[in-house]
Amino acid sequence: MIEIQNIHKAFGDNIVLSGIDAIFEPGKVSLIIGGSGSGKSTLLKCIVGLHEPNEGEVLFDKQLFTDMTFEERVPIRREIGMLFQNSALFDSMTVEQNIVFALDMFSDMSKEEKLDRANFCLERVNLKNTNKLYPAELSGGMKKRVGIARAISMGPKYLFCDEPNSGLDPATSILIDELIQELTEEYQCTTIVVTHDMNSVMGIGDYILFLYKGQKFWEGSNKDMLQSDAPELNDFVFASPLMKAAREAIK
Amino acid sequence: MIFHHFGAYVLLLKKVFKKPEKWRIYIKEIFHEMNEIGVGSISLIVIISTFIGAVMTLQIAFQLVSDLIPSTVIGQINRDSNILELGPTISALVLMGKVGSSISSQIGSMRVTEQIDALEIMGINAPGYLILPKVIAGVVMMPVLVVIAIFCAITGGLIGGALSGAVAPNDYIQGIQGGFNGFTIVVALAKAFIFGFVITTVPAYKGFNVRGGALEVGQAGTQAVVIGCITILVCDYIITALML
User: Fold this and answer.
1) If you ran DSSP here, which 8-state letter would residue B41 be given?
2) pTM for this prediction
3) Which CATH number describes the domain made up of A1-79+158-222?
């Protein structure tokens, strides 16, 4: 479980987040949504420690992450898997080397065991026989899947995804969403996804945190969202005529 | 502004010299970087040093030789100039352009494509993993390159002098053997060690702190080379003043 309490973050005079509280439970896919500049990615970076919040606390299973030094954070970080917006694969390494990198660094597994683990992870994301390819030789969707394979290589307890569907076609987006949901159930990990893809919101959103102008504006499940009367939320989620029609049909 | 950057540079170095997560991985990276920085630069250093040595011989002959000065002086001046100054400094400036810009753009690209964030999320000390092998490779290989540069420059002087007729090979060889002070080699190696550190750390700092995209990565590369070259010249003066 990840708990965030009263998170504030500003860059100079620009206040990006003010007073965000939330609880992200294990085995559920939690989504952080909001318009551009609402602070979604900044909040995610504050949670994983890439940004330090100006105020507030982040707790990983009751352990106060925000007060820890880099060394103290390492055991928690080894349990974190993260999929970046642009995949952030190490471009000088092959797919296989990308996946075994963390295992090389932190485990005492033999070469064969690491190779087996890499093959398992690649199979899990439906990418067999791509071991020797370089990231530059992969399509956008394949890169995302390799990113997921790398994220699960250490058997994560916490899974973070920053815009996992950006730049993907609808069919691949759905595949990625399904994969994230399956892995969350399989590893019973606490999954936090930053997205503005409404298909993801309606498809996999067990818990949704809506940010508006750097503040927590609404939280609930995707089913609760359909009943919400908050105009800011409805203007964001049901902005397109298609989504409006879908909402009316479901209602 | 300068103090801010210097402070940030020192703090980055503090992270670079933290205990590695796994020495085996780092050693593999060190050998890889020694190959990139050292072996990959040998041909460039050989060509440049040989020509510098040849040109130096011609210029010394043109400026100094008279009936009162023996032609063996040409070899002696060429040797000392190359050992004390041209070998270490010109090699360092050339390598700052070749290796420095490469380090800066490599680390800068990793920064803007979030690869450094990915390392940190995994719990890896990114400055240590990315910069320490380069620094060790730099300080180990730079003295080797400088020794090669000095040898090539002195040999280039011999060839240049013989081909142009500026100095007879026997006189030149007699000159380079006369009045040799071994301490000049110590000075050259001390310079090479410090320059190897500058060539790797200054561009690494610039690359590590890039914000933006491809344009900023290019700008950081240029700035790294300019700042690195100035730093090398300042260090050159300080080491010379302290040791000679």
Assistant:
1) G
2) 0.89
3) 3.40.50.300
